[in-house]
Amino acid sequence: MTLHQLRCFLAAVEHGSFTAAAGALGYAQPSVSEQVRLLEQHLDAPLFRRVGRGLVPTEEARALVPHAAAALAAVEEAGRAVADVRQVLTGTVRFGIFKTSRFYLGAELVGDVLRRHPGVRLELVGQNSAELRDLLRKGALEAGLIALPVEEEGLAVNPVMRDELVYLSAHPERLVRPVTPAGLAAAPLVLPDVSWREADSTRRALAHSVQSAGHSLRPRVEVEDIETALEVAATGLADTVIWRGVLHRLADRLPPGLGWTPLRPRLYETFAIVHRPDAQLSAASRVVIELAAARMRALAAAL
User: Which controlled-vocabulary keywords does the entry list (predicted)?
Assistant: First the structure.
């Protein structure tokens, strides 16, 4: 069985005659009918019945059609994959990440891309999911990793990981049980992303949880980055919250003396790779998207 035979067979099914199939494929009619005859011989089954000048597929032919179509589609996809790799060698990608997502992807994503495609130029851009949504809307980025929900319409969304927010403290007695919204409201908190406090998805989730219980979220200290928040928490002067994925990635680099407990009710955030559906993604961008998604899914599995 050959791809040429399958191509002639499908054309005959579609056009209802060897003559019409040959015209569509650009072959001579005897060549098409001979290829179908060889396919019938290989399968030891009749594929067509002649009715007047036309052809009627047999039950065996109908059973073969989806498999023949899938085989040809796989060959075409393989050709596109090879062509994409050749294009990737000189591609440039501007991929959006928010600040904390470097703990999820970071240097490993860069390594994944450059080891496989050393000719790619990679720019990792962004500070916060809100900023990335704006850059995507303006066309300044082809794709990016953001925290959901996506309020803007018209973005293609591919969720790749759900992570849990937990409570960190240097005081073991504060970690005996899960922390409630009332506990969050009363706690001396240090929170990151001060410049994005109104738009940051984590801040909004925390505020909503606390407000739903009739309280207000009033952090004692606000900083820009999670590292500073962790260092302050390690002094015991304030507690903080952090995603379990970040804890996992920091491992032994976490400031000593910190422990964690879950929140009650638990708070989760979903991260997704998004892009404008009307944008024609470059081959290089598709590779970066696939590698970033694989990194995030592997971390989710590890958690």
Answer: DNA-binding, Transcription, Transcription regulation
